[in-house]
Specification:
Order of helices and strands: HHHHH
Helix content: over 70%
Distance between the termini: 95 Å
Number of strands: 0
Radius of gyration: 24 Å
Largest sheet: none
Number of domains: 1
Shape: elongated
Length: about 140
């Protein structure tokens, strides 16, 4: 009888090890996936904020915009993918395009995934033009 109890106890311990290893591996893959997605979306957010929004159209800016639209369509949620598509269509039509909905969606999902408090409203912009900087440097 003791041998059966020992065998059953051993099987339970072994099954626990196997399950724990499987669960840890699965959790590690999910964590790595979340880190990759978060990293790409943070990069897209920064590019939209710092290098695209309210800036002159240059070849470098346009290439970054093309790249971030692709990244958002790869890593973004459904809303962000639709907003990125709309942005691409608006740009292709040569019309005015609105970045706030996409930036706000990125900000909201990133803050949620990082367990930060939800923020209402649009991003506030601060932009200096080259003439203002040159004037200050000459004074």
């Amino acid at each position: 009888m003791k041998e059966i109890e020992l065998i059953i106890s051993s099987l339970i311990v072994i099954a626990g090890w196997i399950f724990n290893g499987w669960w840890s591996s699965k959790r590690a893959v999910q964590d790595d996936k979340r880190k990759i997605i978060t990293s790409h979306l943070i990069d897209a957010y920064r590019i939209l904020n710092n290098e695209v929004a309210h800036r002159k159209s240059t070849e470098e800016r346009n290439k970054k915009l093309e790249s971030l639209i692709g990244a958002i369509q790869l890593f973004g949620n459904e809303e962000q993918i639709e907003l990125a598509k709309k942005l691409a269509y608006d740009i292709a039509e040569g019309g005015i395009f609105e970045l706030d909905p996409l930036i706000n969606s990125l900000r909201d999902s990133l803050r949620k995934s990082l367990n930060l408090k939800h923020i209402q409203g649009n991003v506030t912009w601060v932009r200096f033009n080259d003439n203002d900087v040159n004037k200050r440097n000459q004074d």
